[in-house]
Amino acid sequence: MRRSTRRLCGTALALAACLAPGVGLPVLAQQEPERSLASAQNPMNLQAARNLLAQGDAAAASGNLTEARRLYDQARDYTRRLLSFYRDLSGSFRGLDARIPREMDQKGREALELLAQANLRLAAVFRRQSQPEVAVPLLVEVVKVMTPATEEGRKAYQMLVEIGFATTPYTAGQAAPAAR
Question: Looking at the domain that runs over 41-162, which CATH code has it been given?
Answer without folding.
Answer: 1.25.40.10
